[in-house]
Amino acid sequence: MTADEREQETAPIRVMVVDDHPMWREGVARDLAEAGYDVVATTGEGRQAVRICAAARPQVVVLDLQLPDVSGVEVIRGLHAARPGVRVLMLSASGEQQSVLDAVKAGATGYLVKSASPAEFLDAVARTAAGDAVFTPGLAGLVLGEYRRLAATPEPGGDEPRLTDRETEVLRLVAKGLSYKQIAARLGLSHRTVQNHVQNTLGKLHLHNRVELTRYAIERGLDG
Q: What is the edge-to-edge ordering of all strands in the sheet holding 14-18?
């Protein structure tokens, strides 16, 4: 088990909040702290978020799509470069389809509109930390529909990586939209074991998050 994995087992989830509206940023940080999260950094600028990400070591970044200095999409890419494996939950006033798709393609794990309730937001952060792909209702279908469209013209590649039978079984349930908790119950495994299978699969396929993994599975017809 890596140092990060040991930390995730024993410590509160580490979250960074990036939003250029001070009152909103402070309110989100306060809600997270009161719910037991460790808010390790807050900032209103995308470039600063990328600069401090490696030192702050967040597990989840709650990121506004519209920032004054750079776009949220650019920030997502920078965050992944600074801290590979970080999970990014977009929190935006816009539910515009292209914004959602651009964010997901850049590596966002989920996308929540700011009209969500505090309870929905806190649940989304917890699920993002657990590795689930979290979307405002209606947007999940949009993202999966786009992946199916892209599957009609899959990218050329070399030999397919070899997955174990169990990894393939877990991947099939991921593609169906089940959470890690649901997959664990379905297969009689622990939540940690399911996470390990997913992480191993991500490594073999050279993918970064569950959203990309879902696309991979759909392209190969595993969601049927």
A: 38-43, 14-18, 60-63, 87-92, 110-113, 134-135
pLDDT tens by residue, 75-133? 998 998 899 889 999 888 766 777 777 888 788 888 888 888 999 999 999 999 988 87
Largest CA distance in the chain: 51
Residue 114: DSSP 8-state: T
Condensed to tens digits (0 to 9), the pLDDT of residues 64-86 reads: 988 888 888 889 989 988 998 89
Cβ 135 vs Cβ 111: under 8 Å: yes
Whether 129 and 81 share a structural domain:
yes
Q: Are residues 89 and 130 in the same domain?
A: yes
CA 205 to chain centre: 17
User: Could you tell me where the DSSP H helices lie in 108-222?
Assistant: 118-129, 139-151, 165-175, 180-187, 191-205, 210-219
User: What's the CA gap between 109 and 128, in Å, rounded?
Assistant: 7
| Residue-number span of the structural domain to which 215 is assigned | 157-219
pTM (2 decimals)?
0.65
CA 15 to chain centre: 13
Cα–Cα dist 57/82, whole Å: 9
Q: Where are the beta strands (DSSP E) in 13-163?
A: 14-18, 38-43, 60-63, 87-92, 110-113, 134-135
The answer to whether residue 186 is domain-embedded is yes
Residues 6+ apart with CB under 8 A from 150: 215, 219
Q: Residue 105 — φ and ψ, nearest 5°?
A: -65, -30
Token pair in block for residue 127: 């699920």
